[in-house]
Amino acid sequence: MKVSIRKAREKFSEIVNTVAIKGERVILISKNKPKAAIVSLKDLESLEKPAIKRAKRLAQIERIGKIRNALHQKRLISDSILILRKMREERIEKLSGSN
User: Fold this and answer.
1) DSSP state of 38
2) Number of domains present in the structure of the chain
3) What angle do the packed helices 80-97 and 41-73 form, to 10 degrees?
4) Quick one: 29 and 48 in the same domain?
5) How far is CA 86 from CA 28, 67, 89, in A?
6) Are the CB atoms for 28 and 19 separated by under 8 Å?
7) Do 54 and 93 belong to one domain?
8) Are 70 and 32 part of one and the same domain?
9) pTM of whole model > 0.85?
């Protein structure tokens, strides 16, 4: 559904209920251009989860890169399996310590 920002102000409660109950997405329009959207919490969570997973993967890749650089500086051969095993062990320790 597309709604002008002016109309959205007038019918804010109605729009919020439509989004929350029916799960409908509302695009807010100003001067015939989309400016923002109102989405349900369920939609928001589904949008955020992939971004969070991606950020975690990028952090892991960065850590692997740092480990490889450290091994290279020490003139040691990098072994991805050992690096992944070390990361897994660190993660298990971190999870075990948080309980």
Assistant:
1) E
2) 2
3) 130
4) no
5) 48, 10, 5
6) no
7) yes
8) no
9) no
Domain, as residue range, for 24:
2-39
Q: Are 49 and 82 contained in the same domain? A: yes
DSSP state letter for 64: H
| 53 and 90 assigned to the same domain | yes
Q: What is the pLDDT of residue 27?
A: 96
d(CA 44, CA 60): 25
**Residue pair 25/19 in contact by the 8 Å Cβ criterion:** yes
CA 23 from centre of chain: 20
The residues that bridge with 4 in the sheet, in sequence order, are 29
Same domain, 25 and 57: no
pLDDT per residue of the chain (99 residues) written in tens, 0 to 9 = 999 999 999 999 999 999 999 999 999 999 999 999 999 988 888 887 887 888 888 888 898 888 888 877 877 765 677 778 888 888 888 888 754
For 76, list phi and psi in degrees, rounded to 5. -105, 150
Query: In the 8-state DSSP scheme, what is residue 77?
Result: -
For residues 9 and 23, membership in a common domain is answered with yes
